[in-house]
Please model this.
Amino acid sequence: MSKEPWGRWTLYRGEMWDLPLAVIRCGPGKVTAAAAAQAAVQYLDPMVLLSFGVAGCPDPTVPLGSLIVASSVVDVALTQLGDLPVTIPTRFEPDVLLTRCLLSVPGTRSAPLLCWEGQVASPVRRPPVLEPSRTAAVDWESSAVAQVAQMWDLPWAAVKIISDHGEEERLRLLALAARRPLQWAGEVVRRACGKYVAERVSTQEVELPKELEHED
Model:
């Protein structure tokens, strides 16, 4: 892949099998994720958007390195706004076909993803449990990518590696526990996107694949 500065970000471009791929390494946070997703839509003309990276998990029984494909993304901050005179979406559903292709690769598991700017293991404020029977992952960015994709009617999905349970040494754990799983997650994306494009082409929904893009 080629590497070039893109404003304050880094843009990587190359091919994944025979599919064009662009990766924007934008860093953490909703603002950067939304800005990168919008820039991708305007300048890269992507076929799909992927929120890709790491997430925390409040459930210590979930092994570090687990690969999560979001079944839905919930913006916790928006759910806490209360009654407003306008309707604000707080829950975002990923593309069904793209998600199914991701989950068809061995080693993946489905879980809701909470977009929450709090501390995963805080004894005072913990991420809300919206579905008590299911384990949820927690990140900062995916709802922003989902909102931009929904605004432009683009298929999207979120792929996250569980890097920590909110431990004090979580940054060290991220470096140690997430590196190899993230490499495997890249292979999962490669396989799934190839299958996704093949199915889209076979149903004549698209003629040729446009540029794929995913967020870090």
